[in-house]
What we know:
Elements: E1 2-3, H1 5-24, H2 26-50, E2 57-62, E3 66-68, E4 73-81, E5 87-93, E6 99-101, E7 109-111, E8 116-125, E9 129-132, E10 135-141, E11 147-154, E12 158-162, H3 166-178, H4 180-188, E13 196-202, H5 214-220, E14 224-229, E15 235-241, E16 249-250, E17 253-254, H6 255-272, E18 276-282, E19 286-293, H7 296-306, H8 318-328, E20 334-338, H9 344-357, E21 362-368, H10 371-378, H11 384-409, E22 413-417, H12 422-436
Parallel strand pairs: 3-12, 15-18, 15-20, 20-21, 21-22
Antiparallel strand pairs: 1-11, 2-4, 4-8, 5-7, 5-10, 6-8, 9-12, 10-11, 13-14, 16-17, 18-19
Helix pairs in contact: 1-2, 3-6, 4-12, 6-7, 6-12, 8-9, 9-11, 10-11
Amino acid sequence: MGVNKLAAVYAAVGAVLILISGFASETLAALMFVLVNFLLLVLFAADYIITPSLKHFSAERVLDLNLSLSAENTVEIIVRNNSDKAVTVRVRDDVPEHFLSSDVSAHRVKISAKGYHTFTYTVTPLKRGAYFFPAIHLKVYGLLGLCTKQKKFVTDTNYRVYPNMKDITKYRLNSVNKNMFLSGIKRLRTVANGGEFNSLREYTSEDPYNIINWNATSRRGELIVNTYTPEKNQHVYVMMDSSRVMNSEIDYIKKLDYSINACFLLADYCIRGGDNIGLTVFDRTVQRFVHAGKGQAQMDVLARSLYDVECSETSANYDNAFIAFNSAVKRRSLVFIFTELFNADEAARFAASVKKHMGKHLVFTITINNPKQKALAEGEAENEKDIYVKAAAIKFMQDRRKIKNILRGAGIMNSDVDPDKLSLSVVAHYLDVKKSGLL
């Protein structure tokens, strides 16, 4: 139970009357004090009695159990008034930590007798994981505007925050608009190294000579080429390092989260292309493993496996991860390894482990570059501090080039990508491998 603002206004008016009475006599002021407080008490009690009991109200939250990271998710709170009187109410929802939200409590709404109202607001999760909204708080305003009644509806539903699945559609549309992947898919249809014959068409200047069909060319009197569809049902795996090296942030987003988003876009393209995709998450040991599969069900499995992955405080043990992977995966697969290599010695150890344990697979290593380091290396130094910063940035860029050369020298395909280009770059590499027929 609480006091509404109108009660405070009445009390202020009564105080003025008492003050005025005091100029006449102290006795009159005392009588006025008793009378004002008695009337306020009677009105407040009457308001409390005639206002419907809280047992006539219910509140429920309507929210998708699976939320998207860094995306607005709509929350509905349905308040039902089962009494025979129209009342004014306000709600407040307990929002978990790491969520941004609009203010649902800013609105008072009058709900008719036997009626209901849906309050709507949005939440934006800033971190993956499992969360729950502890309670819904309902405030009912008295019919006379003097009192308030409050009730807490405890809720214990768990909600999972997944990587932003909505971005898959956004990236897909962006890539179509840019014709980036349309041209890649078009090239895939003329793949010469592997794949199944699809149809014949006229030769274009972009076509390689080895797909010319000379028999059809002689019959038609013009150059004719074979078109192919890439082999389907191939296996693609993402091996994701979740050790401490993936905890570093670029623009307040961890490298692990950039990698997870790229994994989902890659999975979408693999599944739409008829391939199977699986997952390994590792640090010192393998933390998660998902056998390669296809279809929307596989996307759901990947989402459940990745929504609560966090960086550990340990270092990655590549030998353990690759041995476990080979034990579980017998078929030759395209393996994208998302990791971070800080120096040449570490890169050499990584390359040796790949060559020792992953020889039957086609490995592509992905690291995430920090574009700010490049900007510092190429920027102008205006003072002594800038000189040191620039020198450190140049050393950083040199180390990245050494790492790339070590991997290339070991025959390991690799790419060091800016974070905003990571997802599209990974899919482009996947299409290139399909085009080449290497798998």
